[in-house]
Amino acid sequence: MKKIAAGMAVILLAVTMFGPSDGYAKKTSVAEIDKQLKQLQQEVQAAKAAQEKADSRNQEAKHYKNKTTLNLDYVLGQIAQVKGEMTTISGKIASTEKSLTVTATELDEAEARVASREKLLESRVRLMYTDGAVSYLDVLLSSTSFSDFLDRADSLKMIVDQDQDLLVQHKLDKQTVITKKQELEGQYATAKQLYTDLEAQRSMLKEKEAEKQELIAYYDEEIQNSEVISAEQDAKLVELASTRSSLEAQKDKLKAEEAARRAAAAKAEAQRRAAIAAAKAAEAALAAKASKSSGGGSSSVASVEEYSGGDGPYLRPVGYARISSPFGYRTHPVTHEVGKLHTGIDFAVPQGTSIHAADSGTVVVARWYSGYGYCVIIDHGGGVWTLYGHIREGGIRVSEGDRVERGQTIAESGSTGRSTGPHLHFEVRINGKPVNPMPYL
Known about the structure:
Layout: H1 2-17, H2 23-130, H3 132-141, H4 146-281, H5 284-287, E1 323-325, E2 328-330, E3 340-342, E4 345-347, E5 354-356, E6 361-368, E7 374-381, E8 384-396, E9 403-404, E10 409-413, E11 424-430, E12 433-435
Antiparallel strand pairs: 1-4, 2-3, 4-11, 5-10, 6-7, 6-9, 7-8, 8-10, 8-11, 11-12
Helix pairs in contact: 1-4, 2-3, 2-4, 3-4
């Protein structure tokens, strides 16, 4: 019996040594991580709110820019119309000046004719009215007969009447020419004033155009600033997602360690009870070795679609699809901005093509992501991320925080965001900065 008691004491001592000792401390660490995750969630919400505000400002600025551009086009149309009217008025002014010249010439000629005839008529009238009676008598008394007398009297009267009519007609012509000259001079003054008014209007429209150009420049700056803010918030969201992924992994590790300690404690407790039962059962059990139960676990590996890639360390996400646009500087196909860095490579694939994870990692983004449209970003550890952009709507097959395996289908290709057609935009980022993906594939 002493041997049995001694054996039991040894077994109990061993069981005590394998018991749990620091479970409470580990629970506290997990709680602290949960607290950090909650703070991260608040930061994510704040970043998303700032991003949405920046996107709203961006859309508003674009709206007003388009509206301003339309107004500017209208103003430019008015300027063109004014220029056309000015050309017409200038032609009218030239025609008026020409008419005035012709009229002035005609007036001078008419006045010369009137002056010449007035001298003739003046001398004749003076002769008739100064010596008219004698002249009439001389003419009449020299008549050879009464009939000749009447003929001479009628002739003298006709000459006087014609001279008077001629004088009156010339005076009327002179007055008509003067009146016409005054009328044309009035039209000329009106045309000159209209020309001045049109010049003033064109100056006003030029000022208005300058104001519109200033507005466009202002809204361009607003758009650029809001895009910068949106990009900064995008980067912050990815950084927060990566931090969250790291904390979640740390939390999972702590939970796994805690679960392992609990399993060890449970196993030790089972061994202790088995030892006590064996000691009570028979004295012979102390001499024999205590049978130990060995548990085996089977690990199941999620089946992953076999998918081949290139010679690099990462798989090609859509196999050997044609590369339609490589990494580097180019003219942006949507915004037409010259010298814009294309931060990844584009694979020309049809809508709905399966997209595969280039390597194992944790999903940090699985949502709409600015100009990338629907997007997935995977954190592979060591500051290395891969990005998959322009995924079709409803085509994302993973969620943020998921652990994905190399070659696993994560999404389907599409044409969301700033895209001219279906394709996959693929990036490799080192510490958040895009690098040429080709050496990795």
